Amino acid sequence: MKTFVATRLGAMVAILIALTGVLFILQHVSPLDPVKAQLGAQASAEAVAARREALGLNEPILVQFWNYLTGAVGGDLGTSYRTRHAVLSDLGDFLPATLELALFGMAIAIVFAVLLAFSTTLKWRGAGVLRAVLFTGSSAPMFLLGILGLIVFYQNLGWVPANGRVSIPNPPDGPTGLLTVDGLLRGRFDVVADAIHHLILPACVIALGPAVAIGRVLRSSLLSDIDSDYARTARAKGLSEGRIMARHVLRNCVGAALSMTGLQVGLMFSGVLVVEQVFGWPGIGQYIAQSIPVADFPAIAGVTLMLGALYVFINTAVDLLQAAADPRIAVIGG
Questions:
Q1: Does residue 59 have a pLDDT over 70?
Q2: Which of 80, 168, 172, 300 is deepest in the core (most CB within 10 A)?
């Protein structure tokens, strides 16, 4: 098990270094001069030379990469050309909104996935309707699904708000930046309810695709194990199908579903960036959408590195959870 953990952690570090290297190369092949982007096109040659020296751009390329890598490890992602603030500070302002939306979306996706897998495997009443709704929703592009959701549930029914995170003035601004959590910590249950009200529609939009992907994998595993020897033994003891699934079959089937969940997390974050534009959500999607037109490379690279690191961390955690659920994986993979 120790070898398995060390191998996965080493692979995680290697991938992050490779990602940092790719971003460093892209920055250097970009035609945009970072010094002139900071100082302006009218800056004097002396000011440009002094700034290049201060930024270490006159150093050998390997020294520059080392400085870039160590700076990224220490949280120095550069300064945004657009906001003139440290990229890490900007990410700290925008990330909580995206993280809250992604967490709620993944929670809803897991609930839908479990319902889809169990209802179709055990042939519950209404399983066909649930399957049809989920499959239809997951096949539509997220931006189109978001627009349709706004037309139906906001414009026609008035059940949900159109945009933003909260409509209550002066919501709590800390310590986590997640309005639902901060509202609970501060006893502001009105803020919690209002934040959830704003989260429901965009979270459901980003949840449909992952729900179907995870649910199909889980259902396939359940169907292959439901007639196994241990399941038949439990059935002979008089246990109900639901208890057999929950107590015996599910643990053996959760590994494949966990792998798919890790994959879907990365895809979900890419979807979140699109959904944020539809719902006017003040998160990373808004930040990157404003940075791309002005070629704000430090901001673009900072978001890319953060999302890449988050994706790698989550998949490493999924691998470790799989090994904890089924120790045979650690023996084979180690």
A1: yes
A2: 80
Contact 118, 245 (CB under 8 A): yes
Query: What per-residue confidence (pLDDT) applies to 327?
Result: 64
How do residues 167-194 score in pLDDT, each as one tens digit? Answer: 888 888 878 888 899 889 888 898 899 9
Q: What is the pLDDT of residue 202?
A: 92
The two tokens of residue 128 are 């066909």
- The reported pLDDT for the residue numbered 196 is 92
Cβ atoms of 211 and 113 within 8 Å: the answer is: yes
210 contacts 113 by C-beta, under 8 angstroms: yes
At residue 242 the predicted structure's pLDDT band, cuts being 50, 70 and 90, is low
- In angstroms, rounded to a whole number, what is the distance separating the alpha carbons of residues 266 and 273? 11
Largest CA distance in the chain: 86
| Nearest alpha-carbon partner for 324 in 48, 333, 308, 213 | 333
- DSSP secondary structure letters along 157-224: S--S-SSSS--SSS----SSS-HHHHHHHTT-HHHHHHHHHHHHHHHHHHHHHHHHHHHHHHHHHHHH
Q: What are phi and psi of 22, to 5 degrees?
A: -65, -45
